[in-house]
Please model this.
Amino acid sequence: DAKTTQPPSMDCAEGRAANLPCNHSTISGNEYVYWYRQIHSQGPQYIIHGLKNNETNEMASLIITEDRKSSTLILPHATLRDTAVYYCIVRVGYSNSGYALNFGKGTSLLVTP
Amino acid sequence: GAVVSQHPSRVICKSGTSVKIECRSLDFQATTMFWYRQFPKQSLMLMATSNEGSKATYEQGVEKDKFLINHASLTLSTLTVTSAHPEDSSFYICSARDRGMSTNTEAFFGQGTRLTVV
Model:
């Protein structure tokens, strides 16, 4: 799997957009970019994933650069409940047997009032 | 989204005893489940891959005789920590993927089990 690089921590004011960057310069053509988050003492929660097109769902938007070497997760209106560690993971799509996810250190996002 | 349930959420046990943690997929079937361990202020580390009806695959450095995994059905995998010691105290998390979904879909995680060995 391609390695990812994320800033260790970020702050964001409540109500503002949180933009979390991720570098994955060694990504290969069949690898997807997945984002998960982990709120303290809970299991990880899936947020979004994409291959090369930008994606949006009810939680967030994922912007992938044209060369696919980096991406940005956008939480459009951050709330205090969005305080968590955010993990960017690059992985081939699951096979029928399913692949585990390799979690790096992630970005600890603190949303402040 | 699909639901994965772990039980118990917290457990305290005496050193030398065994503890069983259950991971259930509540509304889907999972041929494969994964067990992770997370120490304080660290990231999740994969321990083993649990395959329904066959032996689990353990990551390097994880003792298979200490961490017994059973995946007897498509909705249940169990992790038993045998002869637990204080250094086994950790946050254990399982995940599963819906076998009925197409490739590249997301995995679902349980809420985790906080094990404290005293």
Observations:
- The interface with chain B takes residues 32, 34, 38, 41-46, 49, 51, 87, 93-98, 100-106 of chain A (CB under 8 Å).
- Residues 36 and 47 of chain A are 5 Å apart (CA to CA).
- The longest strand of chain A covers residues 84-92.
- Chain A has a mean pLDDT of 92.
